[in-house]
Write the structure tokens for this entry.
Amino acid sequence: MSTNNQKRAERKGMLTNERQNKIMDFLKEHKTAVVRELAASLYVSEATVRRDLKEMQKMGLIERSHGGAILPENAEEISIFVRMNKNAKEKERAATNALREMARFPFRSLFVDSSSTALALAARMELNYKTVVTNNLQTAMQLSKKPDVNLILLGGSVQFNTNSATGSWTARQLKDFSFDLMIASCAAVIGDEAFERSLDQKEIKRAAMERSARRLLVADSSKFSPQAHGTYRLAALSDFDCVATDSPPPEALLGKGIRFSF
């Protein structure tokens, strides 16, 4: 692709993302929208809006309705298929640091949460003859390809966005386990605490933390950004034995008794 064509493609992608962000903002305020009013407010054709809505539906961001779109109940929890591709390089670096930390924590049983960061880590783990429990379908599929792993997939209500089992029943199942190690991520780090977008995911991770001897938080640098968002407090960063990330954390977090690996 020529430089000019590449620049045009990049501009087109930016415009598409901007439109879709505006559509999401509109839906968050009004919960529902019709194609006609979206086209008028965005100054584009109805055909363009329909294409955007189709793409957003595939990503699990919205649900289509007759003549428009609605915001799903779990819209705050971004689709794992979107999260898998977001900040991929940063997640890989954080996963590499997490693998190094795992070598410091001998374990026979492990809980892996439903985060895309943990999914990036799953394929690289050495888990022969270990018991692994997860509530994420994609992580379970990755680990099911590994021989000699005792894999347990928690049950519950499966959401399209998260591709994971959620709900109070899922959290209650964790009371029947005792883990040597827990690997989790979060939606955002605010101050010196980790937050989640979903109450269900927060409850599941809290339940797993209570049943784990050691806890490893894997959070790429985007989670420390002021733009990162989370409503439900998961835990203080100091509640984890280590926080693995891809670059040095904000200076304000250093010297607070939090162990980082970067």
The chain has a mean pLDDT of 83. The CA atoms of residues 81 and 95 lie 18 Å apart. The longest helix spans residues 3-30. The first strand starts at residue 32 and ends at 34.
